[in-house]
Amino acid sequence: MDKIAADQAVLHYGDGEFAVLKPGRFVRCAVTDRPIPLEVLRYWSPSRQQPYFGPAEFIAAQQGEK
Predict the structure, then answer these.
(1) Torsion sign, CA atoms 55, 57, 58, 63
(2) Would you state the pLDDT for residue 6?
(3) Longest Cα–Cα distance in the chain
(4) Domain positions in the chain
(5) Which residue has the higher pLDDT, 65 or 18?
(6) How far apart are CA 11 and CA 52, in angstroms?
(7) Sorted alphabetically, which InterPro entries does this protein's record hold (predicted)?
(8) Which one, of 45, 34, 58, 54, lies nearest residue 12 by Cα?
């Protein structure tokens, strides 16, 4: 396993909070694949269990389900 993959966290996304299942420094945006440091993670979908880099990515994911 390379160092970057080792730094990627695994989270469980709840309503307004998340739980760390595997410690790490970041998660990857479900839309753009950009790394999101855990300390700035603010957008996710509990029903999809996906993180988003920001509001634009969240909206793009919601529009993609139509």
Answers:
(1) positive
(2) 75
(3) 37
(4) 3-63
(5) 18
(6) 13
(7) DUF2093 (IPR018661)
(8) 45
pTM flag (> 0.85): yes
pLDDT digits (tens, 9 = 90+) for 4-43: 667 999 999 999 999 999 999 999 999 999 999 999 999 9
What's the token pair of residue 56?
A: 């634009």
Q: Helix-strand-coil percent breakdown of the chain, rounded to 5?
A: 25, 35, 40
Token output for 33: 């694949």
Give the Cα separation of 3 and 51 in Å (integer). Answer: 21
Helix (H, G, I), strand (E, B) or coil at 61: helix
